């Protein structure tokens, strides 16, 4: 049994006070990832601060976007009327992830901060730099079919598992944080770090800093959007490749585009090269293929996952073609 202390926060200030920035403290949302990690003894916190009662609202911002509390359950977000109407790619991404029971428990903040599902990360007999810094990475020369081809380093090739985050990075979402230094807001694209030489440091969060909300800006053409997930089985499986996309097309020309990729990168991946390649061009399969080629140009396959590069290109083309 893991000996720990449990405290329930009543507001963000009390949550941060209880946490205190201690390395042995963890915030607990729905527990759908943290409890798994504790069960596998990957996480062994001495203090768990329950934040499930905080930030549970979804409201419209003055600019016409949405402000989503970090404690909002995934199911509630996916079913929200404004999300379904104005950001369908987000609703579809959430419904593509996990089971109904997990979505009913998992929170938005916890989903964003979930850790990788790499086999070697969960196997304490394997070398894993995320779990034990500077120990090595057995995935690089091991069974790496599910691993990343973008944003990798010699220290880590693990993918970020979230479906929701792929949609959020495509939507220019902003993360609102509260910490010892006060409140700040950063783009979600900047929250997760590339592994480089320190894959154990996964985000730019300061010790004890708490996610309080996610803001999605007003993006009218996001009503024409979708999420496509390619996986080994139809339910409860992580993406081999996923594409979140919104497309603004007028008279056959792409005026604007937002594209996010999942299952292929070490963080939720904003496909900016593909966006630049497609904007201003005719909405044709050939141009969509050129955009996909531009995005995957610098992909680095391993022995078992090279198929992801072509699969990602085809999924981008199919998804953009569907929207066009």
From TrEMBL:
Residues 1-221 form the FAD-binding PCMH-type domain. GO terms for molecular function: FAD binding; oxidoreductase activity. SUPFAM superfamilies: CO dehydrogenase flavoprotein C-terminal domain-like, FAD-binding/transporter-associated domain-like. The keyword Magnesium does not apply. It holds the Pfam family FAD_binding_5. InterPro entries: CO_DH_flav_C (IPR005107), CO_DH_flav_C_dom_sf (IPR036683), Diverse_Substr_Oxidored (IPR051312), FAD-bd_PCMH (IPR016166), FAD-bd_PCMH-like_sf (IPR036318), FAD-bd_PCMH_sub1 (IPR016167), FAD-bd_PCMH_sub2 (IPR016169), Mopterin_DH_FAD-bd (IPR002346). Keywords: FAD, Flavoprotein. SMART domains: CO_deh_flav_C. This is Xanthine dehydrogenase family protein subunit M. It comes from Sphingomonas chungangi. The lineage of its organism: Bacteria, Pseudomonadati, Pseudomonadota, Alphaproteobacteria, Sphingomonadales.
């Amino acid at each position: 049994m893991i000996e720990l202390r449990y405290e329930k926060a009543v507001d963000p200030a009390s949550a941060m006070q209880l946490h205190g920035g201690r390395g042995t403290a963890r915030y607990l949302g729905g527990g759908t990832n943290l409890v798994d990690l504790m069960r596998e003894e990957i996480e062994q916190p001495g203090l768990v601060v329950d934040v499930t009662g905080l930030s549970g609202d979804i409201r419209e911002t003055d600019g016409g976007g949405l402000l989503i509390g970090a404690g909002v359950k995934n199911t509630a977000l996916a079913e929200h009327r404004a999300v379904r109407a104005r950001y369908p790619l987000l609703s579809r991404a959430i419904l593509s992830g996990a089971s109904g029971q997990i979505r009913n428990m998992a929170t938005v903040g916890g989903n964003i901060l979930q850790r990788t599902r790499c086999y070697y990360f969960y196997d304490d007999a394997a070398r894993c730099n995320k779990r034990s810094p500077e120990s090595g990475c057995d995935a690089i020369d091991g069974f790496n079919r599910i691993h990343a081809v973008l944003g990798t380093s010699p220290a880590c090739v693990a993918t970020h598992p979230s479906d929701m985050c792929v949609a959020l990075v495509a939507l220019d979402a902003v993360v609102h944080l509260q910490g010892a230094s006060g409140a700040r807001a950063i783009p979600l694209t900047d929250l997760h770090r590339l592994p480089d030489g320190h894959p154990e440091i996964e985000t730019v969060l300061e010790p004890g800093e708490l996610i309080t909300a996610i803001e999605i800006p007003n993006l009218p053409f996001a009503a024409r959007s979708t999420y496509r997930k390619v996986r080994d089985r139809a339910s409860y499986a992580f993406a081999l490749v996923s594409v979140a996309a919104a497309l603004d097309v007028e008279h056959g020309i792409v005026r604007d585009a937002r594209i996010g990729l999942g299952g292929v990168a070490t963080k939720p991946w904003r496909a900016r090269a593909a966006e630049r390649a497609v904007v201003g061009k005719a909405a044709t399969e050939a141009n969509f293929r050129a955009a996909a080629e531009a995005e995957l140009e610098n992909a680095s396959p391993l022995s078992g996952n090279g198929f992801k590069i072509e699969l990602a290109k085809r999924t981008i083309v199919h998804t953009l073609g569907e929207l066009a």
